[in-house]
Design goal:
- With about 260 residues, the protein is mainly alpha-helical.
- It has two domains: about 50 residues, no CATH class; about 160 residues, no CATH class.
- About 80% of the residues lie in helices and about 0% in strands.
- The chain has 14 helices and no strands.
- Helix 6 crosses helix 14 and helix 10 runs antiparallel to helix 12.
- The radius of gyration is 43 Å and the shape is elongated.
- About 20% of the residues have low confidence.
Length: about 260
């Protein structure tokens, strides 16, 4: 009867029950201190059960809270407002550095973009393609690329220049002129425009990445000028393709009428 009451009230395991039953009475003997020793043993067993980690719910909740707060802050996604503010800050700095550039360099660079823009703009307005103007744009682009390549020689040759006149700086400056010469050998204007775009990209990479001593206003001016030149060449190539498609369609219609 006593083991059943102990199992129902204190939820002790089976091993504990075998020790707290009649065997425990025989172990301590039939004397007057049996009841007191039995009560002390029961108290000790109850304390051990109350301290066991399997029956303490606070430990479970603590582990859950610890697992819940293990998220690191750098995994959080940036809000679009932060990215927009950073982009606006970069644009403002670029425009400010462009305004701080020397006036002769700024005005002459912008004037040098007029021949590029003046070729596709009238053709787009009139809706006609002029091969002579397109070839003139390719020729002017080749001259501009050669100028951008030779400009690096003038930067590396002075004695107090941060760029050394080594093989890297001087040989890289000859790559854009060679690509410009190759662009003039193509009979197709589209192929020449693609070659000039490659040469402009290589020259921009040299000026922005390989030669960091250039001032910031010059790098911004080079990026803006390269973008305008590349868009002008692409517009001329697109107008040529569009005019060829129109010409082929008109020829097909004329042959079908016959």
């Amino acid at each position: 009867m006593f083991p059943l009451i102990q199992r129902c009230c204190f939820h002790t395991p089976f091993k504990l029950q075998t020790l707290t039953g009649p065997r425990l009475l025989l172990r301590y003997g039939k004397n007057k201190t049996t009841c007191s020793s039995l009560s002390l043993c029961l108290r000790r067993d109850v304390c051990l059960l109350s301290r066991s980690p399997h029956l303490s719910p606070p430990s479970v909740y603590a582990t859950k809270l610890q697992a819940f707060h293990t998220s690191l802050p750098f995994f959080k996604k940036k809000t679009p407002k932060e990215s927009e503010t950073k982009d606006l800050g970069i644009l403002k700095q670029s425009m400010k550095s462009l305004k701080d550039s020397p006036k002769p360099a700024l005005y002459l660079s912008l004037a040098g973009l007029i021949p590029f823009v003046s070729v596709p703009l009238p053709m787009a307005i009139q809706g006609t393609y002029y091969p002579e103007l397109a070839f003139a744009q390719i020729l002017y682009g080749a001259v501009t690329v050669s100028f951008l390549g030779g400009m690096r020689w003038g930067f590396a040759l002075p004695e107090d220049s941060p760029a050394k006149p080594d093989w890297l700086n001087l040989a890289n400056s000859t790559v854009p002129p060679l690509l410009a010469w190759q662009a003039l050998l193509f009979k197709d204007v589209t192929h020449g425009a693609v070659m000039l775009i490659m040469a402009l990209g290589i020259a921009l990479h040299y000026d922005v990445s390989l030669l960091p001593p250039y001032p910031r206003w010059f790098k911004v001016l080079r990026v803006v000028g390269t973008i305008v030149m590349v868009l002008s060449l692409l517009a001329t190539a697109a107008l040529k393709t569009f005019s060829e498609q129109q010409l082929s369609n008109s020829r097909n219609k004329w042959q079908n009428t016959k």
